[in-house]
Write a structure and sequence with these properties.
5-stranded mixed beta sheet; two-stranded antiparallel ribbon; 4 helices
């Protein structure tokens, strides 16, 4: 039987959307919790995404939820909800990992991670460091 988890980021995003949309998100969440593999739930892959586990699902014409959809296993995680474009943009800039020690979900902003780890310096080519005398 599939397991559905809700990330704290999802709850934060949920709190920011209008009340009318919150009702639709609650209805979707109940349907999703009952059966995340149901026919009415259409997972869409995001083309520019940094993490292959990420999918979006339609809440209505305007709003989408971001879901971690396992390639294997039965654990689904609702991680974000927002306007269509904002949800796509948010998801495209994140990576998600489960901490092997605590088992908690870790959400990484890809741009922050790239800034925190300086690019590796390329070693100088042996040829570029040898000077041949001109005759």
């Amino acid at each position: 039987m599939p397991t559905v988890a809700i990330a704290s980021e999802f709850l934060d995003a949920f709190a920011r959307i209008p009340r009318a949309q919150q009702r639709k998100v609650r209805e979707f969440t109940e349907k999703f919790r009952t059966n995340p593999k149901g026919a009415g739930i259409n997972y869409e892959k995001i083309h520019a995404v940094k993490d292959d586990k990420v999918r979006t699902v339609r809440i209505d014409q305007k709003y989408r939820a971001v879901v971690l959809h396992p390639s294997e296993g039965d654990v689904y995680v609702l991680v974000w909800v927002d306007n269509h474009d904002e949800a796509m943009d948010w998801a495209a800039k994140r990576r998600f990992e489960v901490n092997p020690v605590t088992g908690s979900l870790q959400v990484f902003s890809v741009s922050e991670a790239e800034e925190a780890v300086p690019p590796r310096r390329r070693p100088r080519s042996l040829v570029s460091s040898i000077h041949f005398p001109m005759t």
